[in-house]
Amino acid sequence: MQINAIVSALFAVAASGAAVKSRAVTYEISGFSADCAAHSTQCGYGFRLVPSTDAPDSTGLICGNLVTGPDSLPPLPTTGCFENMDYAYSIAIADGGLTLTVTSALDASTNITGSHTAAADQFTYENYGIATRQIYVGPKNFTIEAKEVAI
Question: What's this model's pTM, rounded to 2 decimal places?
Fold first, then answer.
């Protein structure tokens, strides 16, 4: 009889958990950098990502990429983070600024996605005579609120 009560309780807990699908997820971004190298065709993006779903003592994972500029930061299609390809990011360029979008799969039909926009005033150009380079000078650390998105 006690086994039936335990099994019933477990099914009730599982059923109540399944009914609550949506959950709040944030992506903590630290050390965000975006710049182009002087006298080079290379630009780079880099940051540390710590999802709120990670353990409290997690140091997260590193995301970054080198791309061809040459002087201005280019867009970057969705690409996986170095240490865990389950997390991906992309960069869109618009109006002199950029939008960083971070995503991860929740299940086969749902992603958890959020974006952060850096306005044009968070970028500067340095002039090196025959070359210039664009540099992100905005906040290095920020939080991205993410939500479930059907795919």
Answer: 0.83
